[in-house]
Amino acid sequence: MEDIVALCKRRGFIFQSSEIYGGLQGMYDYGPLGVELKNNLKSAWWKSIVYDRDDVEGLDSSILTHPDVLKFSGHTDTFTDPMIDCKSCKARFRADQIDDKCPKCGSQDLTEPRPFNLMFKTSVGPVTDESSYAYLRPETAQQIFINFKNIIDSTSRTLPFGIAQIGKSFRNEITPRNFIFRVREFEQMELEFFVLPGHDDHWHKSWVEMRTKWWIKQGIPKDKLNVIDITGDDLAHYSKATADIMYSFPHGDEELEGIANRTDFDLGSHTKNQGSLNIKANVKENNKSNSRLAVQNENKEWIVPYIIEPSAGVDRGVLAVLNEAFTNEDLGDGKTRIVLKLKKHLSPIKAAVIPLKRNNENLVNKAHEVKSRLQKYQFGRVVVENTGNIGKSYRKHDEVGTPLCLTVDFDSLEKNTITIRDRDTMNQESISLDNIDKYFSDYYSDA
Predict the structure, then answer these.
(1) Residue 48 has what pLDDT?
(2) CA distance readout (Å), 391 to 6, 248, 411, 425, 444
(3) Which of 11, 132, 267, 373 sits a CA distance of 20 to 30 A from 400?
(4) Burial status of residue 289 (CB atoms within 10 A of its CB: 0-12, 13-18, 19 or more)
C-alpha cells in the first residue's frame, strides 16, 4: 500500500485533500492522471451496464436529499454504527473493531456501545430550523427508487429493466482508513434492476456472474476474487440475499462490490396506497408519498417489483486496478522498473509522443502534429512528452501505465517513420507515419 500511495502522489493520481492545511481525513483529490483513470473506469461500467444492454436507462440525481426519502427508507432510524470510547486515551472505535480492550492503549476501561449517525445533515434556504433540514445522500440508490415512476412514464419501460447511476455519496465514517478504500466522500456505480417477484432469484444469480466477469475484464485476476454469500445478522434488514464480490486488497480481503436482492422493500417503502399492493417486505407506513410505485401485469393487477442491486465503489475499484497493475519488474543485471500494467482502456494516457531532442523545432512540431492526428480519435488523452531524455520519458510512462510511446526522431523527418514502443514488452518497431492513424485506431478499437 505504501508503494501505491507514494506512486499516486508522485505521478499525480491521488492527493490528500487540503494537504497544505494538514489534510482532511477521509477525503482525497484525484490529480491529472487519477481523474483520467477514474473516468475511464466509470466509462467502462457505463458502457457495460447502459450501452451494451437494451434494458437499462441512466439517471443523474441530486445529492441533497429530502428528509422524508431517508425517513421512509429507514436510514434516519437505522443508518448508524455502534461506537465505543476508551475512557483512558479518549480514542473512539467502531464496536466491531474492539475485542474487550482498546486497540490504541490496551485499556479495558471502555464505554458501552452507542449509536452514531453516519449521515451528513445540512440546511436548505436562509432559515435554519427543522423544516429546512436535508441530508447529503448516503447512497445513490434512494433517488433511483423515487424516480421509478418518472422513468416508467417517460420511457414506457416494462419489466425487467434497470436504472443506472454513478454519483457521489457521503458517510460520516468515524475511522476512514486504508487510503481510498474507506472514505467520507466517495463515488458509487449503482444499478437497480427491477424484476417480477418470483424471477428475483434467477436475476440475482445472473448479476453476480455478470459483475464478476466484468471485474476480470478490468484486470482483476479471477483467483483474486471470491464471491461470498452474506447470512444471518450480517444480512441487511431489507435483503433476501446478498453476495459480496471480495478482493484481496493490500490490507486484506474486503468487499469490492455487493449484489443484493432487496425484494419489494424500496418501492414498497416509498409508494402510496401500500395497503392495496400486497407488499411482502416489512415497510414503514407511508402517508406522504403521492405516487404509486408499481406496475400492472397482464391481468391489470398492481405489482411492486423486486429489485436486484449491483453496487460498486468507484474509489475501491480504482484502488483494486492500481494494486493489480502495480508491478516492480526485474530487468536483469540488477536493474528494475516500476510499471503500471493497466488494461489499455483504463490507462490515463493512451499514447505519449516523444521528440528525440526537445530543442529541435522540426522534431517538436512533428510531435505535435502526430499528437493532433491521434487525439481526434477520442480514445483518450494523447500527450507530447518534450523532456529531451528518451530513457526517462519511457520510465515515466511505464510508471503511469501509458501503453504506447511514439518517438519522433530524425528518420521521422527524413524517411517519414516513427518508432513505437510497447509498455509491457518494451519492444520497439518502426512504421511509416502514413500508417500511424490506422495502427493507433486498430490498437484501441477493441479496448
Answers:
(1) 98
(2) 22, 34, 18, 15, 25
(3) 373
(4) middle
Q: Which three cell numbers stand for residue 217?
A: 475484464
102-114 pLDDT, tens digit per residue, is 988 999 999 988 7
What are the start-end ranges of the E strands in 241-364? 241-249, 252-261, 295-296, 302-303, 306-313, 326-332, 335-340, 349-355
Bridge partners, residue 326, by sequence: 340
Q: How far apart are the first and last CA of the chain?
A: 28
Classified as helix, coil or strand, 23 is coil
Question: Which is it for strands 161-170 and 56-58: parallel, antiparallel or unpaired?
Answer: parallel
Residues 263, 264, 266: CA angle, nearest 5 degrees: 105
Q: Which CATH architecture has domain 31-64+140-322?
A: 2-Layer Sandwich (3.30)
- Would you place residue 118 in the very low, low, confident or very high pLDDT band (cuts 50, 70, 90)? confident
Residue 319 CA to chain centroid, in angstroms? 9
- d(C-alpha 110, C-alpha 102), whole Å: 7
Cell of 309: 442491486
Class level of CATH domain 347-445:
alpha beta
Helices (H), 133-224: 141-146, 148-155, 200-217
Beta bridge partners of 55: none
Nearest to 64 by CA among 136, 165, 160: 136
pLDDT surpassing 70 at residue 78: no
Grid cell digits, residue 265: 422493500
Element (H, E) at 440: helix 436-445
Length of the chain: 447
Please say whether the beta carbons of 253 and 220 come within 8 A: no
Enter the C-alpha cell of residue 270.
416509498
3-class DSSP state of 382:
strand
- In order of 81, 346, 347, the CA distances from 35 in angstroms are 31, 11, 11
Which residues make up the CATH 3.40.50.800 domain(s) of the chain? 347-445
d(CA 180, CA 102) in angstroms, rounded, equals 25
86 burial type by CB count under 10 A (0-12 exposed, 13-18 middle, 19+ buried): buried
Could you tell me where in the chain the CATH 3.30.930.10 domains are found? 31-64+140-322
Residue 352 CA to residue 407 CA, distance in Å, equals 8
